UniProtKB/TrEMBL annotation:
Organism listed in the record: Micromonospora taraxaci
Catalysed reaction, written as an equation: guanosine(37) in tRNA + S-adenosyl-L-methionine = N(1)-methylguanosine(37) in tRNA + S-adenosyl-L-homocysteine + H(+)
EC numbers on record: 2.1.1.228
Protein name as annotated: tRNA (guanine-N(1)-)-methyltransferase
Location within or outside the cell: Cytoplasm
Record has Cytoplasm as a keyword: yes
Domain tRNA methyltransferase TRMD/TRM10-type: 1-227
Role, per record: Specifically methylates guanosine-37 in various tRNAs.
Database matches in Pfam families: tRNA_m1G_MT (PF01746)
UniProt keyword terms in alphabetical order: Cytoplasm, Methyltransferase, S-adenosyl-L-methionine, Transferase, tRNA processing
Amino acid sequence: MRVDVVSIFPEYFAPLDLSLIGRARANGVLQLAVHDLRTWTHDVHRTVDDTPYGGGPGMVMRPEPWGAALDALAPAEAPPPRLLVPSPAGVPFTQAMAYELAAESHLLFACGRYEGIDQRVLEHAATRMPVTEVSLGDYVLFGGEVAVLVMVEAVTRLLPGVLGNAGSLDEESHAHGLLEAPIYTKPPSWRGHDVPEVLRSGDHGKIARWRREEGLLRTAARRPDLLAALPADRLDKRDIAA
Ligand code: ADE
């Protein structure tokens, strides 16, 4: 997969050299390039922002550098990438969207700063490529950089060959619309707290049932919204009894 990121703070992306993402880049599963938006400015101050029309606080990112950046990274003659613009006003980023993005061949992330990017950049881009404004959650960050780190990590770990044990994708939280059950390792007793007996029973049917029930209980307590959104056919009779 090819991923391009445009930002006025390319240094934010240094962690993408580390660990499993660094390895995915080294072995070519992920071709990631970070670009400085100011490359596409032409004045001595390399200006990227200006005051908002209509008044109000803060500054807005000017359309010209963004237009030139998108022209360069998504040229009309090449297959268009999917453009993702992090914004607190975007649609929620979810595990389902991470799977959707992992199936794309080219993602282009545009990191806004200040109050955001002039909306015409997105309108114009949408005439040439799919554009999605995406929010990490109901809070406001300084800019899109941290959101892009999160999304690149969530997507990269779904690419074939990145995770050592792909089976863990099937068991983790959100894999089936539920939160994952608690997990334990050795020793069996630690500071007076014991590993649940069932996990040491060796009875894999009972263990799977216990995990399912703990996942349901956790989801009901912490994320009732997820439970409510679960299609009825994803719950069986034993789930409802639990
Ligand atoms: N930029 C600022 N806040 C954000 C958020 N919550 N999600 C994505 N991008 C953002």
